[in-house]
Amino acid sequence: MLEPSIQAGPVRLLDHERFWAEHQPWLSQQGYMLRPRYRPGWTPSWVGKSDTFLHYEDSTIPINGHILDAIRESDGEAVVLKLVHQDVHPFEREISLFFSKEPYASHPRNHCVPIYEVLDVPDVETGFILVMPLLRPHDYPRMKSIGESVEFFRQIFEGLQFMHQLHVAHRDCMTLNIMMDPKPTFPRGFHPREMHKNVNFKGRAKHYTRTARPTKYYFIDFGLARKYDPAEGSPREDPIYGGDKSVPEFQYAPGDPILPVDPFPTDIYYLGNMIREEYLEKKVGLQFMEELVRDMVQNDPSKRPTMDEVVKRFDEIMQRIPWWKLRSRLADQDESGAKRFIRTVLHYYRTTGHILTFRSALPTP
Question: Which end of the chain is more exposed for a tag (fewer CB within 10 A), N or C?
Answer without folding.
Answer: N
